[in-house]
Amino acid sequence: MGKSKKSQIKKKEKPARLERRVRVTFFLPAGTIGDISAVREVIDSLDNQYISDTITKFTVTGFIHSSVPLETSTEETLDHAKRLQEEIFWGHWWSSAETEGVKGVLKKLVIESIVFFLIDYPVFSQEWEIDEVLQNLKEEIFSIYAEYGRPQEEIWIVKQDIFRYS
Length: 166
Hints:
Layout: H1 5-8, E1 18-29, H2 33-48, E2 64-65, H3 80-86, E3 89-95, E4 108-122, H4 127-147, E5 157-165
Antiparallel strand pairs: 1-4, 1-5, 2-4, 3-4
Helix pairs in contact: 2-4
């Protein structure tokens, strides 16, 4: 009896290469037309880094984001149940922003559509350099949201070390 097909196929062995990266994740509000416009501008900014005149070792060469709601998918035009079906990520958090005309701090549950971002940066020996890049990214995001009349209380950007096997 002959050899089975499985044993006849020679495996190409490629050694795994370990590559250390810094993974950055953040979620951006996308619950209003202003938010959606701000998200699109953040995406454009990340897209255009690689073709700009000021490429650095931390220039974004690729990233991932979840779907961006259509501008017609705002609370003004669709009911909440319909939006829950159409949009992928929802954020729930308590806002402690002061409300005009109310004495003290009023906690308010905020539920809004969000867009998830993931960027993997190369690792370099000076960790403060990537921290500076992330601080600049956060400031740019705050500025973009303010331009669209949607200033944010906070935006969490999370940085973690990862290892990629290629």
